[in-house]
Structure formats: structure tokens, C-alpha cells
Amino acid sequence: MTIFFTVLFYTFLVTSAIQVAYYIVFLSCFAVKKPSKTQGHDISVSVIICAKNEAENLKKNLPSFLNQDYRNFELVLINDSSSDETFEIMEAFAEKHNNIKLVNVKSIEPFWGNKKYALTLGIKAATHEFLLFTDADCKPVSNRWIKEMSSHFNNKASIVLGYGAYKKVKNSFLNKLIRFETLMTAIQYFSYAKTGNPYMGVGRNLAYRKEQFFKQNGFINHMQIRSGDDDLFINETANKKNTAICYSENSFTISEPKHSFNDWITQKRRHISTAKHYKFLDKFLLGTFYISQILFYTLSIILLITIFQWKIVISVLALRFTLQIFTIGFSGKKLNEKDLIYFAPFLEIFLIIMQLVIFSANLISKPKHWK
């Protein structure tokens, strides 16, 4: 029995070392990063919003886009075969604003339920070279959103990764979980980009040049995958030279979070289903971190219950949680999510459990449509 617990103990030390190394080498990169100074560009921007059955959200959110403090931009609104009044709402706004361009996508059997097809038509219709993407259920937190995101384009950077936050809801555990998962994802993709290995972005706040899209042949290499218009495209085309990150507070978008676990799980099933198509190195690094998380918590609980080498176990736990508090604290402050630091360990454990549930559900049946 002593040999068994000795093996568990050394396995715990190895997984803890992986966790500590991951926080030091990767996640802390964004935490300690200082904001880069940029100069505003007088470039023309096409803001692209693809909507499917989003009539009510468009009514609420489109004014925030139209009121942007930016000289030359157009709003490309794509109606992806909606069955509600989405297109009628788009037309009503277009009648009052001459910088709105409408793209009405009809259902075509080979591309039914495929957001990438609709987005491709919208990108082709866009007048300008610089494209800024968001969703119909999002709105910018300030009227400087376009200015802040577009300022990071330069002669090298043709891709800009932004932050898409979720609205805070008081006294809601689900809301904290959603925001914690969003924060941890952002810390990862910002940190990876900082280390020269950008692997994903979020469609709620993402920008790239039209030239970059066509250079990559658009979404052709993963058109058959229903989701991934954001992360799979970035995973395929981004590199350390052509990618910049933008995390100034005025550059954020904010979305209404899901209000039930079932709705959130359905959303995350679509998102997670694309990860298996990432590059091998990205899958290896992300998978190693996730597996080491599971082992870290599982083994530490077993060792503490059995009081086996408990002093060393507690010391290692203290080191790892100190790094976590440092990373989430500084990163959360930058992304206006600092209240989550107080719940980080508990939220992390629950998120690990939920991710296992989602992975298992995706093995049984695959998500079929983006909406």
C-alpha cells in the first residue's frame, strides 16, 4: 500500500510541476504584459455581423454599432436564412443609415445551417479591406470599439484578437462560471499569442484583413465543420508575425450570457467540438494542461485524505494556487473580471467537471448546426 501511495505522490509532483510550468511559461505572459502603444489609423473598416433569428438582439444592439466614433466604416449585416423578423429589422435600420449593407442568405442544401457559408458571402460583399467581426447578441462597451481594434493593424499585423466579455449577473453561480471559463480562455489565447503561438480567437470580437481571408482560401479547409469560423480560421492562418492582441477596456464587446445550464452546455458543445481540429502542438499543449488539472486535483484530494506526505502536498498546493491567484488577478484586472479571483479554485474544479460532461456528450452525438 505504501508503494501505491508513493507512486501517487510522485505522479502528483509531476502533474504539479506541469501546472506550475504552464502558469509560469504560458499563462503569466499575458498577466505581466504591459499595454502596447498604438497610433490611430485612418483606415476604412467593414464591421460584419452574421445573424440567424436575432430580431430582438438586433433591435437592442445595432444602435451601439451605428454610434461608433469612427469616421469611415460600414456595417455589413448578414441574414442567415432566419425564420423570424431578422431581415425586416435589418431593412428598417438600412433605410435610416446609408452605411449599412445587407446580405440576405437563402438556404442551400449543401450549406444549410453553416455559418461559414453565410460569412463568406458577407466578406465578399464587404467594401473595405479591414474586417471587424462580432455577433448579433453582442454590443461594444464603448463608442471607441472600432478605433481601438483597428489601431492594432499595421504593416505586419493582419489579424487582431480581441476580448468578448459576458454581462455580469448578481448572485448567479452560472454567470460566474461562464465568465470564469471566458476569462481563462482569453488568458490562454492572449498568452499563447504573446509567446508567438496564436491558436484561436473569438468571433464576438475579432478582426482581420480581407486579403488574409482569401490568401487562406477562406474556410474551405474546414467548411464541412459546422462551427469554428473564428477559432479554426485563426488556428490555421495566425502566426507570431501577423497577429496582434487588443485588450484595452474600450475595445471589449459584451454579450448576454446563457441563463440555464442546458443552454450553456449546448453552446459549449459547439465550441469544444472544434478543438480536435487544431494543430497537433496546440492540441498537445492544451490537452496536457487539462489532463494535468484533473490529476492535480484528484491526487491532491486522495493524498490529503490519507495524510500521505501531507505537508509537502499542502506546500505544492500553496505554490500552485499562488501562481493562479497572481495570473487570474492581474489578467482579470486587465479584462474587468477581477471579482472572479475570489472563487477561482472552486470555479476551476466545477469547470473541469462540466468540461468532462461536455466531452462525453460530444462523443455520443455531434452538434449539427451553429443555431
Automatic annotation (TrEMBL):
UniProt keywords, alphabetically: Glycosyltransferase, Membrane, Transferase, Transmembrane, Transmembrane helix
Keyword field contains Transferase: yes
Transmembrane stretches, start-end: 284-305, 312-330, 342-364
Gene3D superfamilies, per database record: Spore Coat Polysaccharide Biosynthesis Protein SpsA, Chain A
EC number: 2.4.-.-
Keyword NADP: no
Chain ranges of the Glycosyltransferase 2-like domain: 46-211
InterPro entries reported for this sequence: Glyco_trans_2-like (IPR001173), Nucleotide-diphossugar_trans (IPR029044)
GO molecular function, one term: glycosyltransferase activity
Superkingdom of origin: Bacteria
Family of this protein: Belongs to the glycosyltransferase 2 family.
PANTHER family xrefs: POLY-BETA-1,6-N-ACETYL-D-GLUCOSAMINE SYNTHASE
Protein name: Glycosyltransferase
